[in-house]
Amino acid sequence: MDDSITKMQLPSPAKLNLFLHITGQRADGYHELQTLFQFIDLCDTLDFIPNVTGTIRLSPVIDGLPTADNLIYKAAQMLLPYRKNIRAGVDIVLTKQLPMGGGIGGGSSNAATTLLALNTLWECDLPLAELANLGVQLGADVPVFVMGFSAFAEGVGEKLQRVELDTPYFLLIKPDCHVSTGQIFTDKYLTRDTPPIRISHALTLGGHNDCLDVVRKHNPEVDEAYLWLKNHGGAKLTGTGACLFLSFENWDDAEQVRLATPKKWQSWVCRGCNTSPTHDALNQWIEQHKK
Ligand SMILES: C[C@](O)(CO)[C@H](O)COP(=O)(O)OP(=O)(O)OC[C@H]1O[C@@H](n2ccc(N)nc2=O)[C@H](O)[C@@H]1O
Ligand SMILES: Nc1ncnc2c1ncn2[C@@H]1O[C@H](COP(=O)(O)OP(=O)(O)OP(=O)(O)O)[C@@H](O)[C@H]1O
């Protein structure tokens, strides 16, 4: 096999929850949400190098995260039964930029990127909807990354309606702490009864993040960063945090506030997009490798 022909490099972007309403809780404990997902052009990079040993190898190992628990490895394992050629394996190299536990979905994005890449490289040829169904077993945020479009989401985040959103610049801040999604969703003071809204309302009036107060209560660093960012505009929390963001019409204004951000918090200026950069790159790869 000629690796130079078949290897694939894909970006694995982050997402923002432009708002996050919790409308109820299912019998299995998972929460019913309404949220507006938008991708940003801040990405990890994944390299996929097919091998003929039938094995999945992932490098480098992330500190404190055994390979077997890495969502990339789990996603690849999940696709094994669908390979056309049972000797097809893969070496995967992860270049991590997205902060973990930031509420920007890095792990879920990596899982989705892996499903998309191997679906092509291993010629599984599953439709996107089927890949998304597999993906939701790995995490509630995986389906939106598999489908690859901005979306109004319901259910646990897997019922997606495609939307076209403005594509502003965002200042993204990561307070120096790691928020546990499980801890936030089990807090007894979490609001779980926000009345459902219509998609038209979501697109015109937006919404809020029901997790904000609980996240601030458990994480003083988020509280401090939120109060700081609020001085510069409508600061928002993404997912269960820890990341906060603010939108701007142009890059210069966003960069100016970033430069003033206390150095103890990581910060980025990035841009919202309506199509996942993973899909753009995958489509380009497929175009270049048409038989
Ligand atoms: C907060 C969001 O990021 C919004 O996009 C997602 O809903 C969270 O997605 P995620 O990190 O992929 O979450 P998962 O790995 O599926 O779940 C982590 C834990 O959070 C809780 N959880 C998660 C999602 C949800 N809708 N209800 C929940 O109660 C569950 O206890 C679960 O064990
Ligand atoms: N490839 C991966 N990259 C990052 N985290 C991973 C990966 N695989 C498994 N994980 C686990 O998933 C946890 C959540 O990571 P992630 O980066 O998705 O956080 P998050 O941005 O808070 O996610 P979300 O917004 O979906 O709640 C990590 O703490 C880690 O234990």
UniProtKB/TrEMBL annotation:
Q: In which pathway does it act?
A: Isoprenoid biosynthesis; isopentenyl diphosphate biosynthesis via DXP pathway; isopentenyl diphosphate from 1-deoxy-D-xylulose 5-phosphate: step 3/6
Q: Which UniProt keywords apply?
A: ATP-binding, Isoprene biosynthesis, Kinase, Nucleotide-binding, Transferase
Q: Which Pfam families match?
A: GHMP_kinases_C, GHMP_kinases_N
Task: Kindly state which reaction or reactions the protein catalyses.
Answer: 4-CDP-2-C-methyl-D-erythritol + ATP = 4-CDP-2-C-methyl-D-erythritol 2-phosphate + ADP + H(+)
Q: Which residues form the GHMP kinase C-terminal domain?
A: 200-264
Q: Which residues bind ATP?
A: 99-109
Q: Has UniProt tagged this entry with the keyword Nucleotide-binding?
A: yes
Domain GHMP kinase N-terminal, residue spans: 70-148
- The EC category is transferase
Q: What is its EC number?
A: 2.7.1.148
Q: What name goes with this protein?
A: 4-diphosphocytidyl-2-C-methyl-D-erythritol kinase
Is rRNA-binding set as a keyword in this record?
Answer: no
SUPFAM superfamilies xrefs:
GHMP Kinase, C-terminal domain, Ribosomal protein S5 domain 2-like
Q: Where is the active site?
A: 15, 141
